[in-house]
Every structure is written in structure tokens, then in C-alpha cells.
């Protein structure tokens, strides 16, 4: 088991609560003095140059899948040379009619150095990575993996 922390800091700096023009910009603070500018999504009066929670959620799913994939590839004796993903998260109404991250599509592209997995081995690595991803196991969001093997 482990514990994970993030600190959030917001201070009223501009705009009005009366007309909902207040700034949504805030800071996410993580270990190692890492700070990230965050806001709500632009469609919710947020800063388009800041990371919004929905982007972060999508990135967390993608990152978790990648890290699990890399660990599994290592165990199977495959050397991964490059891994990229253009993940997309969809915010929409769930079956209960509430806004929710209803779907995340991961599009990993992986290039291996040395021994190449067969198509079946490659798909099995992604299937096991999905099943082993802590974040994917923690959410109700449908997660789809559209993997592409790069040669």
C-alpha cells in the first residue's frame, strides 16, 4: 500500500463571484517542488493555457497504462525504444445523466529495439497493461486501447 498527495492552491485574484467571472486558475503542487498551472476547461470559463482536471485524468490513465506496459515488456524480455500516446478523454453525460468522463481512448505507438513481439504478444502486453493499470482499475470510465506497433 502507498499514500499519494497533491496540494491545491487558489486565491481570489480577479473577477467577480456575482457574475461568475472569477479566475479559475490555481496551482497543483507535487513532491520535488513541481508546480503546475491548472484551471477548469475552457468550456467552463477556464484558462485554455492551463491543465484542466479532465486533461489530467486522461493523462493519468495514459501514463499508468504506459508504465504498466513498460514493466510487463521488461519482464517478457522486450526492450522498448519509444512509446508515445495521443490519448483522448470524453466528457459527456453518463447513464445517470451526470457529466462524467465517460470514455478514454489510448492510442499507444510502441517501437521496440532488438527482439520484436509478435502481434499476439504485443496485444497481450497491452491487454495485461490495461488489466494491471491502477488508475484504470479505479474508475468507471470505459478505457479503450488502440495500440499500434511501430517498426
Short overview:
The chain is 25% helix and 31% strand. With 151 residues, the chain is of the alpha/beta class.
SSE inventory with pairings:
Blueprint: E1 7-9, E2 26-30, E3 34-38, H1 53-75, E4 79-85, E5 88-93, E6 99-106, E7 108-113, H2 119-132, E8 142-145, E9 148-150
Parallel strand pairs: 6-8, 7-9
Antiparallel strand pairs: 1-2, 2-3, 4-7, 5-6
Helix pairs in contact: 1-2
Question: Could you walk me through the main structural features you see in this protein, from its secondary elements to its overall organization?
Answer:
This protein has 151 residues and is of the alpha/beta class. It has two domains: 38 residues, no CATH class; 98 residues, 2-Layer Sandwich (GMP Synthetase, Chain A, domain 3), CATH 3.30.300. The protein contains two helices and nine strands. It has a three-stranded antiparallel sheet, with no helix packed on it. It has a three-stranded mixed sheet with strand order 4-7-9, with helices on one face. Strand 5 and strand 6 form a beta hairpin. The N and C termini lie far apart (38 Å). The model has no long low-confidence stretch (mean pLDDT 96).
Estimate what percentage of residues fall within beta strands.
25-35%
Termini separation = 38 Å
Q: What do we call the CATH topology of the largest domain?
A: GMP Synthetase, Chain A, domain 3
Main sheet characteristics: 3 strands, antiparallel
What is the radius of gyration? 19 Å
Number of strands: 9
CATH top level of the largest domain?
Answer: Alpha Beta
What count of helical segments does DSSP give? 2
- Assembly of the depicted chains: single chain
Question: In CATH, what is the homologous superfamily of the largest domain?
Answer: K homology (KH) domain
Structural domains: how many: 2
Low-confidence stretches: none
Task: Quickly give the structural class.
Answer: alpha/beta
Percent of residues in helical segments? 10-25%
What is the name of the CATH architecture of the largest domain? 2-Layer Sandwich
Overall body shape:
elongated
Element-level helix/strand string: EEEHEEEEHEE
In order across it, which strands form the biggest sheet? Answer: 1-2-3
Amino acid at each position: 500500500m502507498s499514500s499519494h498527495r497533491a496540494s491545491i492552491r487558489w486565491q481570489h485574484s480577479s473577477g467577480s463571484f456575482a457574475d461568475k467571472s472569477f479566475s479559475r486558475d490555481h496551482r497543483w503542487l507535487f513532491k520535488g517542488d513541481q508546480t503546475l498551472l491548472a484551471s477548469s476547461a475552457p468550456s467552463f470559463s477556464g484558462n485554455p493555457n492551463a491543465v484542466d482536471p479532465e486533461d489530467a485524468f486522461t493523462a493519468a490513465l495514459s501514463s499508468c497504462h504506459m508504465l504498466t506496459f513498460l514493466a510487463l515488456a521488461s519482464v517478457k524480455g522486450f526492450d522498448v525504444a519509444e512509446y508515445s500516446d495521443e490519448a483522448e478523454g470524453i466528457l459527456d453525460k453518463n447513464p445517470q445523466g451526470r457529466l462524467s468522463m465517460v470514455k478514454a481512448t489510448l492510442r499507444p505507438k510502441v517501437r521496440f529495439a532488438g527482439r520484436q513481439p509478435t502481434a499476439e504478444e504485443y496485444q497481450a502486453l497491452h491487454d495485461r497493461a490495461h488489466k494491471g493499470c491502477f488508475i484504470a482499475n479505479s474508475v468507471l470510465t470505459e478505457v479503450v486501447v488502440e495500440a499500434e506497433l511501430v517498426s
